[in-house]
Write a structure and sequence with these properties.
Blueprint (H helix, E strand, L loop, with lengths): L13 E2 L4 H10 L4 E6 L2 E7 H9 L13 E2 L21 E5 L5 E6 H21 L3 E6 L4 E4 L1 H7 L3 H4 L4 H4 L5 H7 L3 E8 L2 E12 L2 E9 L2 H27 L3 E6 L4 E4 L1 H7 L12 H5 L8 H8 L3 E6 L5 E10 L5 E10 H18 L3 H12 L7 H14 L5 E4 L6 H11 L8 E5 L5 H9 E2 L12 E2 L1 H4 L4 E5 L6 H13 L1 E2 L8 E2 L3 E6 L3 H6 L5 H7 L2 E4 L10 H16 L4 E2 L1 H9 L5 H15 L4 E2 L1 H7 L19 H19 L3 H8 L3 H10 L11
Parallel strand pairs: 1-2, 17-24, 17-25, 18-21, 21-24, 26-27
Antiparallel strand pairs: 2-3, 3-4, 5-6, 7-8, 7-11, 9-10, 10-11, 12-13, 12-16, 14-15, 15-16, 19-20, 22-23
Helix pairs in contact: 1-2, 3-8, 13-14, 14-15, 21-23, 22-24, 25-26, 26-27
């Protein structure tokens, strides 16, 4: 089979002259870690996301970088006529394919090559076992490693009974050991077996110049070369796959159904700090019983539970790794291997931090800006630089089907941001936004609320059963508010749901597939809770894929006036009033420390609208509603006539900016006096057309 049948289109194809930052955006949007690069029609290399990010972080000032600056050219370009089993695979997830003229045709995924290699190996094993001629092989020690059905029939024995035994124990007169010692083949040897004459060819098995065993074939001379070629191809495939495992960056271990280590790569030893002898031919659970592992082995759990398991493992040398054990089943459903993948937690954390920095730096691209402008025309109020950054990140991550963790003090708007993420994704057309407060429902009821229950699951259960919130939120978004308050027994069940992507109703036996976007929110310090043992570390890492921290209202003062006007309009409409804000009241609101954040601002405004008998909310009324410790003394502003509130706001803003710029020598000092950021002052100065001499850009 040839590479041509595996060619597929790449989600991203780059040109060498494209801007590097735009290319990175394309890779992230399509969730690709690399993409082929062409010049005209010809393939010239591959752009790796990691290298591109490195280049962008370290780029020279005022120099636009293009794709060719970060191009990886030392890459194998495949031909559609290349044989799959002869393909040498390196560390890339795909390889570009070009025709005889060097023109780009597409890509071939490494996983597709693996699958076809496996098919080739399986087919060749079938050929070996179902061959009409008998085949028997031994290793360098004379142990029988192959005996097909035809060989068993010719020799009058059960192949399974002799495999693994010494050839001289089974056949004392066998000459295979002599072939191993001499390294010379013995062709066309006539022997008598069960009263019949057969032609026997004995051949040493040579690899890398050394004799590693011998094979005898009960067949005629004409068929010898074909069978030898098959065996050679299988050996070559095994060696190629072995090289791939060894070249992997992640640690890999393979164990049998008894948990005995069969194969480890160098990366595993590097990541765990343990030599290969700790794993090979040893039961993996011995490392836990001997105190080398702090927790039970993930491999042991995968063997016992017959499912993929992911957990954190701590080693007595101080190393901490994230481990995933995946069971491998035979065609008849029997578990016969576990492949364990090991990753460095510190390395993962560094990658996450790099990703977060990149998102923060590049989130303000055109389509996201347009979408946020549409949001701000509706019910979303965000004027401060800090909140606009949060909105940019939220809209970008909404397009990726990944778990989000919202962090921030009580009342900052975590629920509102969760709804924005839901509405910015593709899920509103398919499912609902559902939320639950994990700290407001008793532990005994929370499980049934989340997972639902079957009829008769417990005393008092509804006859028809009840769907849980995971089920109700199918194809939608589920907000787990106050996740830090979730009881630990339920944390274990939630972790399993996130790992398996399925769950059971209480009292149910049929698994329900999970198709829900999970957003968790908390005002607690989850890292601190993890250290205190009150929150599971593995669940924390599962939830903390995309953390978004919402700043408190006191750190985004530019939002206080727009929020106040927004809620005042709503409450005027709700209570059929026509209240306005006194200019002095605005100053008090902006100077207050807002311990209750946006929720406190809403409550105070609604209370004032209801209780205040006048049309204007003056500073003395608002002062009575606020915690006096957080109120600064404000110089009163005298209002001589009535003008529209927005116009009054603009007049006050412009005058304050003019005074601050006149008083101070630099913009930075003026911004500090006004309690706003340097960039906000520059923007507002331009908005009000302040004289150029008053805007000192130092």
């Amino acid at each position: 089979m040839n590479i041509g049948k595996l060619i597929r289109n790449s989600p991203v194809v780059l040109k060498k002259e494209q801007l590097l930052d735009k290319a990175v955006d394309l890779l992230i949007d399509h969730q690709q870690c690399a993409a082929p690069v062409v010049s005209g029609k010809k393939t010239i290399g591959v752009l790796l996301l990691a290298e591109a990010l490195h280049r962008l972080r370290n780029k020279p000032d005022n120099k636009e970088q293009v794709v060719s600056d970060a191009l990886f050219t030392d890459v194998t370009v495949l031909s559609p006529d290349d044989a799959i089993e002869d393909t040498v695979i390196g560390g890339l997830p795909f390889y570009p394919v070009s025709d005889s003229k060097g023109h780009y045709m597409g890509i071939v995924l490494v996983e597709d090559i693996y699958k076809d290699m496996k098919k080739i190996a399986n087919r060749k094993n079938d050929v070996l076992q179902n061959a009409h001629n008998g085949i028997l092989a031994v290793d360098a020690e004379g142990v029988i490693i192959v005996c097909n059905k035809s060989a068993g029939k010719h020799l009058g024995i059960n192949p399974h009974e002799i495999t693994g035994r010494k050839i001289n124990e089974v056949f004392p007169t066998s000459r295979l050991t002599r072939v191993i010692s001499t390294g010379k083949p013995e062709s066309i040897q006539k022997i008598i077996v069960n009263g019949r004459s057969i032609v026997c060819n004995r051949t040493p098995i040579v690899y890398d110049g050394k004799v590693t065993g011998a094979v005898t074939v009960f067949q005629n001379v004409a068929e010898l070369e074909a069978v030898s070629a098959e065996l050679e191809s299988v050996q070559r495939l095994y060696n190629e796959l072995d090289t791939i495992v060894e070249a992997a960056h992640d640690g890999i271990m393979i164990t049998n159904s008894d948990g005995i280590g069969l194969r480890v790569n160098r990366a595993l030893c590097r990541l765990t700090g343990l030599e290969a002898s700790y794993y090979l031919n040893q039961p993996i659970d011995k490392l836990y019983s001997d105190g080398v592992f702090k927790y039970e082995s993930v491999t042991t759990k995968a063997l016992r539970e017959k499912r993929s398991v992911t957990a954190i493992q701590r080693i007595n040398n101080g190393k901490e790794v994230l481990v995933t054990g995946t069971p491998i089943f035979s065609n008849n459903g029997e578990l016969f291997r576990v492949v364990t993948n090991v990753r460095d937690i510190i390395e993962l954390q560094k990658l996450k931090e790099e990703r977060d920095r990149y998102i923060e730096k590049n989130s303000a691209n055109g389509d996201v800006d347009d979408f946020i402008q549409q949001l701000r025309k509706g019910e979303i109020v965000a004027e401060s630089t800090e909140m606009l950054k949060v909105l940019h990140v939220a809209v970008r991550v909404a397009r990726a089907e990944t778990t989000v963790l919202l962090l921030g003090e009580s009342g900052v708007g975590k629920e509102v941001l969760a709804k924005i993420i839901h509405c910015s994704s593709n899920r509103p057309r398919r499912g609902k936004f559902i939320q639950i407060n994990c700290g407001a429902i008793p532990e005994s009821l929370l499980e049934s609320e989340l997972f639902g229950y079957e009829s008769g699951a417990f005393t008092g259960a509804k006859k028809e059963g009840k769907p849980g919130l995971f089920e109700i939120a199918d194809n939608g978004t589920l907000l787990l508010d106050e996740i830090g308050e979730m009881p630990q027994p339920l944390q274990v069940k939630l972790l399993r749901v996130l790992q398996e992507q399925e769950y059971y109703r209480i009292g149910g036996v049929k698994p329900i597939k999970l198709n829900v976007r999970i957003i968790a929110a908390t005002n607690k310090d989850l890292k601190k809770l993890v250290k205190q043992g009150k929150f599971r570390k593995d669940l924390y890492y599962r939830l903390n894929v995309i953390p978004i921290e919402i700043p408190p209202l006191r750190h985004r003062k530019d939002d206080i006036l727009p929020l106040s006007l927004h809620y005042l309009r709503n409450f005027n409409e709700k209570h059929q009033t026509n209240k306005t804000l006194d200019a002095r009241t605005v100053a008090i609101l902006e100077s207050y420390h807002w311990p209750g954040n946006v929720r406190e601002l809403m409550n105070i405004l609604e209370r004032t609208v209801i209780l205040n008998s006048g049309d204007s909310i003056d500073p003395y009324i608002i002062n009575n509603q606020l915690d006096q410790k957080g109120v600064k003394e404000i110089t009163p502003i005298i209002v001589r006539s009535i003008i529209p509130l927005r116009k009054a706001q603009a007049i006050i803003e412009r005058e304050l900016l003019q005074k601050a710029l006149t008083k101070n020598k630099t913009v930075r000092q003026a911004a500090k006096d006004l309690g706003i950021s340097h960039s906000t002052l520059i923007r507002k100065a331009a908005q009000y057309n302040l004289k150029k001499e008053n805007v000192i850009t130092v």
